[in-house]
Amino acid sequence: MPAGSSPPRRHIRVLSPLVVLLLAWSAISGLRLIDPVVLPTPWSVARAFVTMGRERVLIDVALTLARVLAAVGIAACIGIPAGLLLGYRRRWYAMVEGPLHGLRSIPASALFPLFLITIGVGESSIVALAAYPSLLVILVNTVSGAALANKRRLYQAKLFGLSGFDTITEILFYEALPNIFDGLRTAASYSMVLVIAVEMFIGLDDRGLGRAIYAYQATYRIPETYAAVMIAGTIGILLNLLVSALQDRMLRWLPDAYES
Amino acid sequence: MTRARTPSDDPDAFAVRLHKVDFSYCASRTNGPLYDGFELSIEHGSVLALMGPSGSGKSTLGKMMALIIGPTAGRVEWSPRFRNRSDVVYMDQHPMNSVFPWQTVRRNLEYPLEKLNWGEQESRARVDYLTSLFRLEPLLDALPAKISGGELQRVALARCLSWRPELVILDEPFAALDRELKSDISLALGQLAAKDGMTIVLITHSISDALAIGTRFVVVGDRPVRIISDLRFDHPAHAGQLDRDNMEDTLIACIRDGLV
Hints:
Largest sheet of chain B: 6 strands, mixed
CATH architecture of the largest domain in chain B: 3-Layer(aba) Sandwich
Mean pLDDT of chain B: 84
Number of strands of chain A: 0
Helix content of chain B: 25-40%
Number of domains of chain B: 2
Low-confidence stretches of chain A: none
Shape of chain B: globular
Oligomer: heterodimer
């Protein structure tokens, strides 16, 4: 076994940069090189986690996470079937490809006001705003996955006289699955970004992680602001791990090298 | 109309017939057409070994027989006895292309039968039969990506033959098998062909594979492709060693001539 890959060493390799960062942070804030209003000490941030726990930050976390998952879920439920259908009927895709790419190039944040007008201020507009770019990215990834499907295996659909529905659900879906997961991963991070941003705009019941970050900053509770940002980062990492775990489970069958 | 030069050839006896077939790949135009007025008729129940140097267009010929690719001009006719698309199957050189990697080996064998509306009992009996014929018992619950190349080739072969197609075009089906297994599997294939009355086209560049089950040997070469020799070996089971040796020598000579 190569020396660098044993588990304890790997942990050291992963953790040591974090430790260095923490030490540098302590040194900089301890020596007051930077105004504590801008950069609080690690200790004060640690204390902030405790106060936030008392202020039931877990509700904010849960609410934000639920919104992100709802957005990705809705996007997947529409984007995957629609993408498979468009990947199967390539002529339809050729027709919608132009408008689709046009829509994709609009930054989702530019659409905030329009969404607020059409959907109104509420839970649904937060989720819809996050779901919208996620839907596009899942759709496009699914279509390209279906386009990359192994032609020799699709030949079997003709051989067995499969219906369009069966071809899509029994062959094309699996062929596109690696790309679908790429789409889901991107969609999860898009949704996270947008939910946090929209929560800052729309303070429903004054809860949600984005709202918390905004509120702490507005009241000059800087250590809490840092702590909330860290929580947001951690959620991002966990979401990514969730998609990876799902991917490992559902793509266990994937051959190492795809022949075509 | 030009026809294969056998006296006992009645018009309905062919499984597949190529008449004045032209074909060229776009990229190969500079070298002239691959096929130009090619003629070949294959009788029902024969095991035709199609031999020739690599790159001589054997796979292209096989794909044209299966109507996967159409000739630029000319006709490819299937026997009027073939009523379904699934009566003719082409098995790719890469066995992974002929199985569904997301299904277990067992499921891979069951799936075509299910789609072709076989009864449950009939289907189970067929799967059991193929499992023992191709020695797949220990692999049944494995995924195609987790088994060896030789094992996968057996699975692909069993799957292609599962629904008793009338005409089977096998492109290098023994490539990943070791010598010992190869003779076992080709024996099993020969048995199955005789039992089910299948017509087999075996694309190979191995003379020993061809001799193991072939009843007719067609050596192709040159460009545009022409038939260099067309030999028959009507009762391989009754042929003595001397006949085999003679045939082997003849084939070696033909292939050598084809390369010149």
